[in-house]
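W.,

You were right to be curious about this one. When I first looked at the sequence I had no strong expectations either way, so I just let the prediction run and decided to look at it fresh. Below is the sequence, 249 residues in total, followed by the output.
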Amino acid sequence: MPPYTLLAILAHPDDEVLCAGTLMAQKAMGSRVVVLWLTKGEMTNAFGDLSSGEIAKRRQDLGFEALDIIGIEGRFLDLPDSAVEVSVQASQKVANIVADIKPDGVLTWGDAWVRGFRHPDHQATGEIARNAVNFARITKVVNPENPHREFCPIFTMRDVHSTLPAVAVDVSGHVDKIFQVADHYRKAIGFGDVKWLKARLQSSGSDWGSDYAEVFDAWETGGGLTETLLPHLAADFDHHPARSSDSKY
């Protein structure tokens, strides 16, 4: 068994451009890494007058091709692009996948206030994912899957206004493939400008004394510079105690 499993819960196939280095770094240490996209991104204008079904198929293919570059697994749900809503039903769908995969950590969208990051689908996806980690603990929610009750810290895309602890992953050894993934999407749908992404990674890296870094919010763990999200950095507070029996907490 791999030493850790990281699950990235994202809204659209191309969101992983912003965390591709972290996913590759985790995979490189022998971990299992899985991306779950909640939508197929069918609302894009990049493919002209094609039907939503045809666009969804193209974007699904693009997503799997990107993951072939990164070297990790991927799954899709069928929530509607640009209409993702926080609901018990959506979180329960994701909870069943969490219970199946049983990750040691989840990477997703957070609460953000800058353009792009604050896309309603991104905001909703982050809340759905955070709720799903709790729902995955409850047998009656995830049946027939066994519940996932191990500690599963949340990491989210960091907004410039965040006050949460920051964890920076040094992705300097993975930049070539990061840019390859970005250019893969740029050629197909127009998002993934390599110059913009390079400047972003270098700026983040300079704050942490590395050449290139991806930075995330650590909701339940400590902050700092690291080579991988897992094993997580220790927090300076005590977590809720583990329970041997079912609980809604």
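Here's what jumped out at me. DSSP finds seven helices and eight strands in the chain. And, maybe more interesting for your project: The chain has a mean pLDDT of 95.

Coffee later to discuss?

I.
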